[in-house]
Specification:
Elements lengths: L13 H9 L6 E3 L6 H5 L7 H5 L4 H9 L13 H12 L6 H14 L10 H11 L7 H7 L2 E5 L9 H7 L7 E3 L5 H4 L6 H12 L6 H17 L4 E6 L9 H12 L6 H22 L2 E6 L1 E2 L4 H7 L7 E2 L5 H13 L6 E5 L5 H8 L11 E3 L9 H14 L19 H19 L7 H20 L10
Parallel strand pairs: 1-2, 2-3, 4-5, 5-8, 8-9
Antiparallel strand pairs: 6-7
Helix pairs in contact: 1-19, 11-12, 13-14, 17-18, 18-19
Length: 474
């Protein structure tokens, strides 16, 4: 029997162990999509205790605590941080087979040098150890980033954001990790939302452009894209119900937008036509600027109305949506390809059933402008566990070119989540190592080392074209 989460955790063969320890583990981290706060990085935030660092805002953990029958006051309520930590520890011991069990113990090992097991009985020991460690100078937000060997972070930012904190970080030569904004224009697209007109007023003020038409909206967004580009942005991200394609004439779109500006409620068909026009305009703009476009879809959000009313979004009440017509996504990509305006694109579905469809769609739109121009994104959210990652990697390998894959991201609000890259790399090396030892790929050390280094880090550097990041040689 193997020891619990030892140095060869998840590495089942000698080849897998060698590939991970000799190559993958030594690569830096490029976190090209996350939700951590640039303000907290700029201010080098410190945490009083492990609950503040671990449980505050982590809806992954909140879901599990609710599943364990924990009262909400111990999750998001007014109970003490020590009490909340105890309830989490008691929940974790039941989470066998869940990635949170692995992530939590990897974080305890890597950042707190704790190699025991967290449960209800050990909670006090772990609480005291972690809180003492957090007093050390290198356990601040920036210190944790440095410990994790992170070269670059892309946050997630609204077009109306002034990027104040990104500027503060960029001007601070003592912090060498790059922190760049990523363009997330969901609020500009979601005209069905009750606060849409309020948002347009904020966007108009930020851009200095009067938004009284769809053309005016695009002009305002162009101004803001230029501002984001000046601050290092080269990646966009969209959170979509699904990638729709309901084309309409320019006049139809202007009429729909004018109707919404007047305060009227748009129909579902009008919403889909508007969003299609919006996404086509954004795709063309990204191609012009050589930005990469990330499309996250397949999620149904905010399903528990009672919890949403108390806590708002990102409260642990989202689920997989099984409606995502691949034909419409293909038509959307094709509309951009027909005019040679399809940007580098990364497709993420929350539904693992979509893996094969994505794998076949991306092959239709590859070209010589970039290796792996159209990517299947890493296993996302409810799929970033051992089975989900293995299935995504295997599907991509079967239907595309795994060697061009741009690898893992944290998609997290936590400064401890960089161990997810380790988790991913162990699973990747185990998969490749198994193929080699099964005679499905030659035991060519140079080729294998190149594959592992590329997928772990170097492909992402090349794909996004980040300046100043070294990728080294084999």
């Amino acid at each position: 029997m193997k020891a619990f989460m030892d140095t060869d955790f998840l590495l089942e063969t000698e080849t897998a162990q060698r590939l991970y320890h000799e190559y993958a583990a030594k690569m830096p981290i490029l976190d090209y999509h996350c939700h951590i706060s640039p303000m907290e990085i700029a201010q080098d935030k410190r945490f009083e205790n492990i609950t503040q660092l671990w449980l505050s805002g982590d809806h992954y953990k909140w879901r599990q605590m609710r599943s364990n029958g924990v009262e909400e006051r111990f999750i998001t309520g007014d109970s003490s941080d020590r009490e909340k930590f105890q309830k989490w520890a008691e929940t974790l011991e039941k989470a066998i087979g869940n990635p949170l069990y692995h992530w939590s113990h990897l974080e305890l090992q890597r950042y707190f040098d704790y190699h025991g097991v967290l449960n209800g009985d050990t909670a006090e020991e772990v609480w005291e150890l972690c809180n003492e460690k957090l007093k050390q100078p290198d356990m601040s937000a920036r210190g944790l980033i440095r410990k994790s060997n992170v070269t670059l972070i892309c946050t997630t930012d609204d077009p109306a954001d002034d990027l104040k904190w990104h500027k503060v970080i960029a001007q601070d030569e003592s912090f060498t990790t790059k922190v760049l904004p990523a363009w997330r224009p969901d609020r500009a697209m979601n005209l069905e939302k009750p606060d849409y007109l309020e948002y347009l007023a904020a966007l108009s003020g930020a851009a200095g452009v009067k938004i009284d038409s769809f053309c005016g909206l695009l002009e305002a967004l162009e101004q803001r894209m230029n501002f984001f580009e000046e601050n290092g942005c080269c990646i966009s991200d969209h959170g979509l119900e699904y990638v729709m394609y309901h084309p309409a004439t320019e006049q139809e779109i202007e009429d729909i937008f004018a109707s919404r500006l007047s305060g009227k409620v748009v129909s579902r068909e009008e919403e889909l036509k508007f969003k299609t026009a919006f996404m086509l305009a954004m795709g063309r703009a990204y191609h012009k600027k050589n930005w990469a476009m990330q499309l996250h879809y397949g999620v149904k959000r905010d399903n528990n109305g009672a919890i949403y009313a108390r806590l708002g979004a990102d409260a642990g009440i989202d689920c997989i949506n099984n409606f995502a017509p691949s034909a419409e996504m293909t038509e959307y990509l094709n509309a951009l390809a027909l005019t040679e305006e399809l940007p580098k694109t990364i497709l993420y579905s929350l539904n693992p059933v979509d893996n094969a469809a994505i794998g076949t769609i991306i092959g239709c739109f590859q070209d010589a402008s970039a290796a792996g121009k159209i990517q299947q994104g890493s296993a996302w959210w409810f799929n970033d566990h051992k089975k989900g990652m293995t299935e995504q990697l295997s599907s991509l390998a079967s239907l595309g070119l795994l060697g061009n894959f741009i690898g893992m991201l944290t998609d997290s609000r936590s400064f401890l989540s960089y161990t997810r890259h380790e988790y991913f790399r162990r699973i990747l090396c185990n998969l490749i190592g198994g193929w080699v030892e099964n005679g499905e790929y030659p035991a060519d050390e140079k080729a294998l080392a190149g594959l592992v280094k590329d997928i772990s880090y170097r492909n992402a550097v090349r794909y996004f074209g980040f300046d100043g990041l070294e990728i080294g040689r084999d």
